[in-house]
């Protein structure tokens, strides 16, 4: 009995050994800093004021919730994520449907379409800010000229919206790829059976294709949201969060607080609030990924 | 806009409707078709052309900004600023030369170093971990997987403040190894999930058969399993390359001059050099090129990486 259990314990460690380095490393790099963030958030600490380290309890959090700028920024973050994710998902669905048929040069079309997702985000943002949205020399105003749009200053008039254009341009290919994978995993015989039953193309799409795609669209939406919470480069490059905080999101605002205002305690408290707010989406994402993954395993 | 799209949808779906040929074999018509069907087929072919044209148009719209960036990179500054924009110009390599002379070359090397070393670290740590979570699973595999995934759900801003304080205190600010460690941590969960999904495709009996032949576990893994999953590992590596090369947040906050990466080098163009579009385009092109190529190569596995292996 004892011998058996020590044996299995040895076997357990043999199995665990390859996992441990990665596990320890990840805990060290991600969890320890987060715990420190929580710790810092209960202190008043300004990096450029020596000796300013002081325990203040939950005061930073009170400050954060009273800060009207923080509320505006939080709202911006929600608009940015929801707007980008929804529009990208719709456009991505359209593009995926276009690509889910064979035609000459389909591979090239797909390659061209995924390129915006690959371009270095800061380079893409700069490109939109200058070559595309410039009031005088920009392509957007040139294209819109016949419609009576003069030298309109898009970035300064609609800062948040122009940032979103850049983000939608970048994330539509992501959605397209996920939904296309869904379309291609659609069993042909189901559609065939639907046709035999005399269903029209629109009915087929609504009753068969869309339900099948649901898992893929959901996954695209939650993953897109998770990745988009971290949006930083686009705002940094295009608007610097301005005017005021009109186009700032939480990462950018926290960055300003920590690295331009040096208010470590407050920035940390905002970081903790951001995490708390994302937990809802995160749990949804985790469940979906797990469900898809375990479902695929059962099917295999 | 919606109307033609809608009617187009109807006709296109009828293309797939042809009962004789399945969607894959729809192109060639069989000989015994009746005439009305032939007429219908011709109409469907017309619809298919319209759909193909639409797809091409969409691709060009999405690709246009990139194309314009590359074109502008080959212009002289005065040709970059014209109203209306010019498509025809005499190309020059002047901008690339200027950009490389101004030190962007160093930042490209920094990016390459950080990307390659961190990707190697991810593989060294990740391959054994993925193995221990798939073929020879540890107890509580599910919990460990959940943990790895949940770290990707943590917004990066939640860790940047203490990271800055720590890195500053131990004197690793503006050091490329700081980025290497952080990029490894950033990509490791994705890589483990993705590689695990490849490991799971290996039949478990294979490992048992190999180890029953008397080979040690290590030999069995090296000789039998690794060759089978190597395409998956390559795809995983490419995904890690894309993410670490494009990373901006850590790089801009934790580096200054010595360890500056290519994306951070572009920041100069929004302030001092903001008016040199052609030069900016050349720098952007150089900074974007490596990952665009990596992404094109890995495009079939891109979905799998981005969805943590949940979607094949």
TrEMBL record, chain A:
It is a multi-pass membrane protein. It is found in: Cell membrane. One of its GO terms (cellular component) is plasma membrane. The chain crosses the membrane at residues 20-40, 73-99, 111-131, 151-169, 216-238, 258-286. InterPro entries: MetI-like (IPR000515), MetI-like_sf (IPR035906). The keyword Transmembrane helix applies. CDD domains: TM_PBP2. Residues 74-285 form the ABC transmembrane type-1 domain. Belongs to the binding-protein-dependent transport system permease family. PANTHER family: BLR7065 PROTEIN, INTEGRAL MEMBRANE SUGAR TRANSPORT PROTEIN. This is Carbohydrate ABC transporter membrane protein 1 (CUT1 family). It comes from Halopolyspora algeriensis.
From TrEMBL, chain B:
GO terms for cellular component: plasma membrane. The keyword Flavoprotein does not apply. Its main location: membrane. Coiled coil: none annotated. One of its GO terms (biological process) is transmembrane transport. Residues 1-40 are annotated as: Disordered. It is found in: Cell membrane. It holds the Pfam family BPD_transp_1. Keywords: Cell membrane, Membrane, Transmembrane, Transmembrane helix, Transport. InterPro entries: BP-dep_ABC_trans_perm (IPR050901), MetI-like (IPR000515), MetI-like_sf (IPR035906). The chain crosses the membrane at residues 47-71, 112-133, 145-164, 176-195, 224-245, 276-298. Residues 108-298 form the ABC transmembrane type-1 domain. It is a multi-pass membrane protein. Belongs to the binding-protein-dependent transport system permease family. This is Carbohydrate ABC transporter membrane protein 2 (CUT1 family). It comes from Halopolyspora algeriensis. The lineage of its organism: Bacteria, Bacillati, Actinomycetota, Actinomycetes, Actinomycetes incertae sedis.
């Amino acid at each position: 009995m004892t011998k058996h259990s020590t044996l299995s314990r040895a076997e357990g460690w043999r199995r665990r050994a390859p996992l441990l380095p990665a596990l320890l490393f990840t805990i060290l790099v991600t969890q320890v800093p987060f715990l420190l963030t929580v710790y810092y958030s209960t202190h008043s600490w300004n990096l450029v004021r020596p000796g300013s380290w002081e325990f203040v309890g939950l005061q930073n959090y009170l400050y954060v919730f009273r800060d009207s700028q923080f509320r505006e920024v939080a709202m911006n973050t929600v608009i940015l994520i929801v707007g980008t994710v929804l529009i990208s998902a719709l456009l991505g669905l359209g593009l995926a449907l276009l690509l889910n048929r064979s035609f000459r040069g389909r591979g090239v079309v797909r390659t061209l379409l995924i390129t915006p997702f690959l371009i270095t985000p800061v380079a893409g943002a700069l490109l939109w800010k200058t070559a595309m949205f410039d009031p005088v020399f920009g392509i957007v105003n040139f294209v819109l000229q016949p419609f009576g749009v003069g030298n309109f200053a898009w970035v300064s008039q609609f800062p948040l919206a122009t940032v979103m254009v850049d983000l939608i341009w970048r994330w539509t290919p992501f959605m397209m790829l996920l939904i296309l994978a869904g379309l291609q995993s659609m069993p042909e015989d189901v559609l065939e059976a639907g046709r035999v039953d005399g269903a029209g193309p629109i009915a087929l799409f609504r009753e068969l294709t869309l339900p099948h795609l649901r898992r893929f669209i959901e996954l695209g939406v939650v993953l897109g949201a998770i990745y988009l919470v971290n949006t930083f480069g686009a705002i940094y490059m295009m608007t610097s969060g301005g005017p005021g905080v009109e186009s700032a999101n939480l990462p950018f605002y926290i960055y300003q607080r920590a690295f331009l205002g040096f208010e470590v305690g407050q920035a940390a408290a905002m970081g903790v609030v951001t995490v708390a707010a994302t937990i809802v989406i995160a749990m949804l994402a985790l469940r979906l990924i797990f469900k898809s993954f375990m479902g695929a395993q059962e099917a295999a | 806009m919606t109307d033609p799209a809608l009617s187009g949808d109807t006709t296109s779906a009828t293309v797939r409707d042809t009962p004789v040929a399945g969607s894959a074999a729809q192109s060639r018509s069989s000989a015994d078709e009746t005439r009305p069907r032939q007429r219908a087929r011709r109409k469907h072919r017309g619809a298919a052309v319209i759909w193909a044209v639409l797809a091409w148009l969409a691709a060009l719209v999405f690709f246009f900004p990139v194309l314009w960036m590359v074109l502008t990179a080959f212009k002289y500054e005065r040709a970059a600023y014209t109203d209306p924009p010019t498509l025809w110009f005499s190309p020059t390599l002047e901008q690339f030369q200027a950009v490389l002379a101004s030190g962007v070359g160093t930042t490209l090397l920094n990016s390459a170093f950080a990307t390659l070393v961190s990707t190697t670290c991810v593989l060294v740590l990740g391959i054994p971990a993925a193995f221990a979570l798939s073929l020879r699973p540890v107890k509580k595999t599910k919990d460990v997987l959940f943990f790895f995934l949940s770290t990707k759900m943590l917004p990066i801003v939640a860790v940047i403040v203490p990271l800055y304080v720590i890195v500053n205190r131990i004197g690793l600010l503006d050091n490329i190894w700081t980025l290497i460690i952080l990029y490894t941590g950033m990509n490791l969960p994705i890589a483990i999930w993705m590689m695990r999904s490849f490991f799971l495709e290996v039949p478990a009996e294979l490992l048992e058969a190999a180890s029953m032949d008397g080979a040690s576990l290590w030999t069995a893994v090296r000789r039998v399993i690794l060759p089978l999953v190597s395409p998956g590992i390559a795809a995983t590596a490419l995904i890690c390359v894309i993410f670490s090369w494009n990373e901006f947040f850590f790089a801009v906050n934790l580096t200054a001059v010595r360890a500056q990466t290519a994306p951070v080098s572009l920041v100069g163009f929004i302030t001092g050099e903001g008016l040199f579009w052609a030069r900016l385009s050349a720098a952007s092109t150089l900074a974007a090129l490596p990952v665009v190529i990596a992404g094109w190569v890995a495009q079939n596995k891109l979905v799998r990486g981005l969805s943590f292996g949940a979607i094949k």
